[in-house]
Design a protein that fits this description.
By secondary structure, the protein is of the alpha/beta class. It is elongated and about 115 Å long. The longest helix is centred in the middle third of the chain and has 24 residues. It has an eight-stranded mixed beta barrel with strand order 13-14-16-17-18-19-20-21, surrounded by four helices. α17 links the parallel β18 and β19. It contains 21 helices and 22 strands. The protein has three domains: 116 residues, PAS domain (Beta-Lactamase), CATH 3.30.450; 160 residues, Reverse transcriptase/Diguanylate cyclase domain (Alpha-Beta Plaits, 2-Layer Sandwich), CATH 3.30.70.270; 253 residues, EAL domain (TIM Barrel).
């Protein structure tokens, strides 16, 4: 009765005759009704082939007295054709010489526990969304692959893949669509990946491919091109059709690195080079890339110090009416002097963007511009508005408009004291949140200019969608207005831009005006405002005030 009532299954075994007796509970666990297990041989036929050796070893160690108790977890074939995990425990009964003549014990069904354990082990080494091996398993596989490559004097390669503009999919279609795309990409790449490649998910929209072995750099590039072609082919599935591209970086062992961490880092660096080149391309690691990364990191460190040590300053470039030459505004431009030399904006602004420092710098620019405006108003009375450039990254925050308005209110300045200049990159990435912020600024009285117009991908529909009041024609068009060799310059394009702007009731500003001839032609074409070296370069605050605001005040 005790055997029947026990939750565990009971067994009794004779080590000498190999005779086996099992209780009904053990048979019940495995789904059998009758005891058909007369001896060890019959039992071993049920044990999973991969577990037989471990089972025999555990029994032998206990019989020899090396383990006080017998314990083993292994799989046994049940009547339904599936293997159940059981935990078997027991103890030998020994004669006065210590020789075992009987073993008794019990088994517990641990299938659910082992299944949960296996799931946890799988999740620890696999990505939950795609089922791909994760970066932890990649690190383990890479170390094994490097060890083998060294022994066999072979090459291997690491490919770092980053989807281009994946954020746009999440922002426009939602994270569910983004997850669906990652699953479809995983499915496609897994089905078409070269045989010497293994795919891993690094995280986010990043994947890693381990090529092992690979013949040379050309073979690694060929594999990368296959993967790139798979990614650029439209993906149809689920609720949406997806059009994707990817930036891919390649790092080769042993040419680029001798250890796994450096190999992955170099592939990552090459991927960023591909992305900086516009995306949808492949780059192989070169030593020059390391120099650029080192320089960039050094510049970022210096830029952080520059913020703390007040090395940044605002210079102001005037904007004047094309016809009258009257000052109608100024653009605040960031300058950095590290105490020894001037650092060009086109060198440090991209670093600020990539590192996220542009958020802190952007707030500093607003504060400093407001301080200058307050000082100038006290000395000269009302002055034309000052324009501040807003970075696309600032629009990743939902509070940029409120920040703008709160700082103006705290200073006691009206909204029209400042203007906001955005680039077409903001336009391209404009989601509902970004547009709402621009609308909030416009409705509060802050004018918005679209800078560098004509160099991006703006369309009439986008211009109508955004609450802008001014178009700024990029200086490259102004430079090519009149060509010395008599060839057709950019006049037709500028004429078209001005006509389009007028049709939308937008003010037109031309940047980079350097000659009287350019100014005269722009006036003829109907351009409202000019800005450039013909009027003045960007000047420090004191020089700008002395040269333009004093004159502006006298006119008033």
């Amino acid at each position: 009765m005790a055997m029947l009532a026990a939750h565990d299954g009971f067994w009794e075994w004779d080590p000498l005759s190999k005779a086996l007796h099992v209780g009904s509970r053990l048979l019940e666990i495995l789904g059998y009704q009758e005891d058909f297990l007369p001896d060890t041989h019959a039992w071993l036929k049920l044990v999973h082939p991969e577990d037989v050796a471990a089972y025999n070893r555990a029994v032998a160690l206990h019989l020899k007295g090396q383990n006080e108790f017998f314990y083993c977890e292994y799989r046994v074939l049940a009547k339904d054709g599936c293997y159940h995990w059981i935990a078997s425990r027991g103890m030998a009964v020994r004669d006065r010489h210590g020789k075992a003549y009987q073993m008794v014990g019990s088994v517990t069904d641990i299938t659910d526990r082992r299944k949960y354990q296996e799931e946890m082990e799988f999740l620890a080494l696999h990505d939950n969304l795609t089922g791909l091996p994760n970066r932890l398993q990649f690190a383990e596989h890479l170390q094994d692959a490097l060890r083998e490559a060294r022994e066999k004097a072979e090459r291997l390669a690491v490919l770092f893949i980053d989807l281009d503009r994946f954020k746009n999919i999440n922002d426009t279609l939602g994270h569910r669509a983004g997850d669906q795309l990652l699953q479809l990409i995983t499915q496609r790449l897994s089905q078409n990946i070269p045989s010497n490649c293994r795919l891993y998910r690094q995280g986010g929209d990043e994947f890693i491919v381990l090529l092992n072995p690979v013949e040379d750099a050309r073979a690694a590039l060929s594999a990368a091109m296959i993967l790139k072609d798979q990614l650029t082919t439209p993906i149809t599935g689920g609720e949406s059709d997806f059009f994707t591209t990817a930036s891919i970086g390649i790092s080769l062992f042993p040419e680029d690195a001798s250890d796994g961490e450096t190999l992955l880092r170099h592939a990552d660096t090459a991927m960023y080079e591909a992305k900086a080149a516009g995306g949808n391309t492949i780059r192989s690691h070169t030593p020059v890339m390391n120099e650029r990364i080192t320089f960039r990191m050094s510049l970022e460190t210096q830029l952080r110090r520059a913020l703390q040590e007040e090395q940044l300053a605002l210079h102001f470039q005037p904007k004047v009416d094309t016809v009258t030459g009257k000052l109608v505004g100024a653009e605040a431009l960031l300058r950095w002097h590290d105490g020894k030399k001037q650092i060009p904006p086109d060198l440090f602004i991209p670093v600020a963007e990539e590192s996220g420092l542009i958020i802190q710098i952007g707030e500093w620019v607003i504060d400093r511009a407001i301080l200058h405006i307050l000082e100038w108003q006290e000395r000269y009375g009302d002055i034309p508005p000052v324009a501040i450039n807003l970075s696309p990254r600032q629009f990743w925050r939902s509070s940029v408009a409120d920040l703008f308005l709160e700082k103006l209110a705290l200073a006691g300045l009206p909204p029209h004291a400042l203007e906001a200049e955005i680039t077409e990159s903001v336009l391209l990435e404009a989601d509902k949140s970004s547009v709402d912020q621009l609308l909030h600024l416009r409705d509060s009285g802050i004018a918005i200019s679209l800078d560098d117009f004509g160099t991006g991908y703006s369309s009439l529909s986008y211009l109508q969608r955004l609450p802008i009041s001014t178009l700024k024609i990029d200086k490259s068009f102004v430079n090519n207005l009149i060509l010395d060799d008599g060839a057709v310059g950019s006049e037709p394009m500028v004429r078209a831009i001005i006509a389009m702007a007028k049709s939308l009731s937008l003010l037109v500003v031309a940047e980079g005006v350097e000659t009287i001839t350019q100014r005269q032609l722009l006036e003829k074409l109907g351009c409202d405002v000019i800005q450039g070296y013909l009027i003045s370069k960007a000047l420090p605050a004191v020089e700008f005030a002395d040269k333009f605001l004093v004159d502006c005040s006298n006119r008033g």
